[in-house]
Amino acid sequence: MKVLKFGAVWCSGCLLMVPRWQEIEKKLPWLKTEYYDIDKDVEVAKKYRLTDYPAFIFLDKDDQEFHRIYGEIDKKELVEYLQDNKNK
Amino acid sequence: MITTKHMRILYKCLLLFFIFLSLYFLKANNILAQDPVYVTIFYSETCPHCVKEKFFLDKLSQKYPYLNIRELETTDNRELFQKVSERLRKPARGVPYTVIGEEVVVGYQSDDTTGKQIENIVIEHSTYKCTDFVAGVMEEEGILPQGEKIVGGDCPDDEVKQKGVLVKLPVLGTVDSSSLSLPVLTFLIAFMDGFNPCAMWVLLFLISLLIGLKDKKKLLILGSAFIFVSGAVYFLFLAAWLNVFFFLGFVPWLRSLIGIIAVISGILHLRDYHRKRTGCKATDEKKRKKIFGRIQSIIHTRSFWLALAGISALAVTVNMLELVCSAGLPAIYTQILALSRLPAWQYYLYLLFYIAIFMLDDMIIFLIAVKTWQTIGISSKFSRYSNLIGGIIILLLGIFLLFKPEWVMFG
């Protein structure tokens, strides 16, 4: 599983999620994530047709999207979800 | 390219413009559903203060079209004057002797003092529809002019007016409406209007660029200028709305219109709370790039004063564009404020207080950036809860404006 994180320097919710993701990535060393700035990585952002920010796209082993989350999410809730879907 | 969103914004602005135009013409043509309020002035031909008051009353009747002035010279109406003063138990010690309902004002100092007092009584009587006492006495004496009739009913006594009413509110429980202070209401509405993490995108981008430059002086001055000018623009906007409501006076259907807007706004805020949305919609990409381009060129300007002027102009532009079509909460708040009887300076103090709360989230972000050299985000949970509490308050204010406007008259 891989998580694509979309955000921007001007997005309040995105800034709020940065430290949360840092803690999660420390806690789950197996987790792969990639960050995209929607102003710089325009084509990637367009590819996923995002409507709100921050946005988190969950990809399986075949790089197919199986879930997405918009907005802030509680760290505990996110860790639970990631662990439940670790082998996808 | 003009999109559906642009058309929606245009329709909203046209609707606002149409409403203002309609109100202006309706006021000019006196098409107002409002019971008349009579002010009776007993005067003397040789009394200079009476002349001053008559001039003031003439202006007042233009401001409040439902106001009728009855001028009675004391020599020609000696018996009536005596009877009125005896029945009201307010000795006729001098002139001008002004009667509104059963309230008496003796003498006239200036428009700002006695004039304001008379105006407040007129407003109160238009709300409570108090009876025209002098017309009652004139009818008994058989001297009421043809065409005139006694209007109004019993006025509530001072205790009721001062005590307010017990109101049962959801979540908050039973509350004495007289204890709901204007400062608390100002705080709640301003918080709901201003606390919006999604609306901070321009400020956050500006701060992130300034932090990147590692120039603390520029960060402090340009950031402060952006926030200050944004607050000033909104203050002027609120002041304009306030003066619109002063100018149009107590036009009942304007109050009803604002009441309807408040009810709709309250419902929409509660809907937003229910939706549990925590993300922010991205602003139009083209508009965003244009503004970001401007910010980048401003902060890289060599001349500090030009940069300051540029940031101030940007703050004006950005805020003006947002303001024109999101007038709901400011209109609702300034209508409530205009209904309150306060000295002139207090109205503007309340507006300043509103602005301080309105800009609070921006100031928090900015101060943290200055202190820590970092931009942080504010959780949208705050705006969710403000949607809930504020939505309830605004919905209730709308209902009160429609059915019980006297409950929202503070002061």
The gist of it:
The complex is a heterodimer of chains A (88) and B (411). Chain A has 88 residues and is of the alpha+beta class. Chain A is built from three helices and five strands, in the order βαβαβββα.
Task: List its traits.
heterodimer, A: about 90 residues, alpha+beta, 4-stranded mixed β-sheet, B: about 400 residues, 16 helices, about 65% helix
List the helices and strands and how they pair.
The complex is a heterodimer of chains A (88) and B (411).
Chain A: E1 2-7, H1 12-27, E2 32-37, H2 42-47, E3 52-53, E4 55-59, E5 65-70, H3 75-84
Parallel strand pairs in A: 1-2
Antiparallel strand pairs in A: 1-4, 4-5
Chain B: H1 4-28, E1 37-43, H2 48-63, E2 67-73, H3 78-87, E3 97-100, E4 103-106, H4 111-128, H5 133-141, H6 158-163, E5 166-169, E6 173-176, H7 182-194, H8 201-213, H9 216-248, H10 252-275, E7 280-281, H11 285-299, H12 304-324, H13 328-339, H14 344-358, H15 360-372, H16 381-403
Parallel strand pairs in B: 1-2
Antiparallel strand pairs in B: 1-3, 3-4, 5-6
Helix pairs in contact in B: 7-13, 7-14, 7-16, 8-9, 8-11, 8-15, 9-12, 9-13, 9-14, 9-15, 10-13, 10-16, 11-12
Unreliable segments of 5+ consecutive residues of chain B: 18-33, 158-170, 174-179
Helix and strand content put the structural class of chain B at alpha+beta
The overall pLDDT of chain A, averaged over residues, is 90
Compute the gyration radius of chain A: what is it?
A: 12 Å
User: How many helical stretches of chain B?
Assistant: 16
Strand segment tally of chain B: 7
Global outline of chain B: elongated
Task: State Rg of chain B.
Answer: 26 Å
Q: What is the terminal separation of chain B in angstroms?
A: 51 Å
Helix content of chain B: 55-70%
How many strands, what sense, and barrel or not for the largest sheet of chain B? 4 strands, mixed
Relative strand content of chain B: 5-15%
Strand order of the largest sheet of chain A: 2-1-4-5
Biggest interface and which pair forms it? Answer: A-B, 23 and 25 residues
Question: What's the assembly state of these chains?
Answer: heterodimer
Largest sheet of chain A: 4 strands, mixed
Mean pLDDT of chain B: 78
